[in-house]
Input
Amino acid sequence: MADTCLIVASAVAVLVASAALAADDTALLAEARQVFQPLPKDISTAEAPVTKAGVMLGRRLFFDPRVTVDSNVSCATCHQPALYGTDARPTSIGVKQRPHPRNAPTILNAALAFVNHWRGDRESLEDQAEQALKSPITSGLEERDVVDRLARIGGYAPLFEAAFPNDAQPITVKTMAAAIAAYERTLVTPSPFDAYLAGDVAALSPTARAGLQTFIKTGCAACHCGVGIGGGMYQKFGIVEDYWTATGSRTIDKGRADVTKDPADLYVFRVPSLRNVAMTAPYFHDGSVATLPDAVRVMGRVQLGTKLSDPEVNDIVAFLESLTGDLPPEFAAVPVLPPAAVITAQH
Amino acid sequence: MADTCLIVASAVAVLVASAALAADDTALLAEARQVFQPLPKDISTAEAPVTKAGVMLGRRLFFDPRVTVDSNVSCATCHQPALYGTDARPTSIGVKQRPHPRNAPTILNAALAFVNHWRGDRESLEDQAEQALKSPITSGLEERDVVDRLARIGGYAPLFEAAFPNDAQPITVKTMAAAIAAYERTLVTPSPFDAYLAGDVAALSPTARAGLQTFIKTGCAACHCGVGIGGGMYQKFGIVEDYWTATGSRTIDKGRADVTKDPADLYVFRVPSLRNVAMTAPYFHDGSVATLPDAVRVMGRVQLGTKLSDPEVNDIVAFLESLTGDLPPEFAAVPVLPPAAVITAQH
Output
């Protein structure tokens, strides 16, 4: 996906040159279709198939807090349906009040991203879920204790057998992660912008269309492109000036350089998807900016060296609001979990 | 409601004497109708009216974690839809990992109870919500900070104006509590047992009907009576022997005596409603017992001086399972909250 987006990004450069000629809606739609793609129905792959039984199980695991150390944290703690799959905090809080180092991105459409986590140190949703189930911050349990806990909730056994019929030992952290990720791969949110890309020009207001034009013309779409409107490449945060001067960040995060130890990755982060961005404040890897207009201004300044005017910011925000889709019904409505208490040594 | 149940309880004593005569289903239904009542559609009162605008607002507040100290605890933290309005923990964990002293009862049908909290030190759901919004355990904020936080989430203002059109200052902790409680008053779960009380004898299995008979005959219904099948009176926990000998409780809770300072209230607690009890483990004020059969055995032993046989326990559990209703749709599906980040000093 990184390659695709890089190709698209160079296509954008050409489009930017001809943007002044795109005077009418047809031309804008044609431009947009070269840069962006509409959402698929789900985001399964050959290695990560989405099965009905897997999704049914994964949806329950996603909402179940009983397999973390104090039985009070689940995936849904940082990815709350009521907050569009986020926790509305700058950075998240895990088990035993332990701080997570970065902002929780929405889980909606998360499977579109070419890698996971801000620094790209999770290969896939499956990898992310597996590591989260064992992490001291988000779980606080050892792998064997996670499995023991889950096995004690009797109602889960038949769900695992249905989802993993060929596994002699169906309940493992790996199968849990596979099921959770299968569920997450169904959490897609078609938006007015997808209707627009499908040809319904009126799905975007004139202001949003002006914003789309500015979004492409100014260069935002060089990175925020593709089906995710972002999520397809790495980029340095702070190309023109240091990001913390514009965001007021309290600490300086070196980004991907801390993962790869490569100086070329200093302040490099995964470009986030902008789908549902109007519903998922605060912004950036450290949640340092509270509102969308301010986030747009920061981006213009530190990434593009552009001081966007208030009307431009207003238009871009209207475009970004068109990326909000409805919550998937299987996310808005929580499942009933197999009942059972977990009484641990330290209650 | 306490008086009603006491009257019903004395009626039970008469019924118990004639229980051997109630050989057929018609007689059992007639008995049951004297002891129990079906659920109303909602649980509004003259002082606590349930308005559409109030419920709409209260539902959002119920799920919103942003008005507690670290923006990570809401009513739904201890009263999770996926866990039938509980947290499945022996005792709850509040803000900053602070322990709550007692087990979180389900919020479903909670408005039926004559008082709230295990020791009866909350007069109503409105009182409970108001105190929870200011409590160091569940909120961690001062009253004025709660209001400040909420006022900063712009989308709430019109919802408060609609719900409290006559209030010059609509956003207060008191109106928040009134709205939350109005929502909670709609969370009723009609069950197979309600269909039974309405005359559909086949809504209960023969085993459940045998359990109902045993439940009445043995004396359980002396306290677990009325519309809530409990929730209508206080009772000492451990009438025949100390409760902690049977439950294995690690600490001895003096119950209501710590509230009233009256020695007559030693080990006295509010009798809990048994609606949805099969879905709301663990059991008792300290969550010391993990399974429903064990909880039934403990009750027989310490309250009634009866060693229930395994078939009797089995039958009673089948009856108790008939008290499980579907989750109300407006509880199973969470609302989308007005978007906004809360960036506090300590993020």
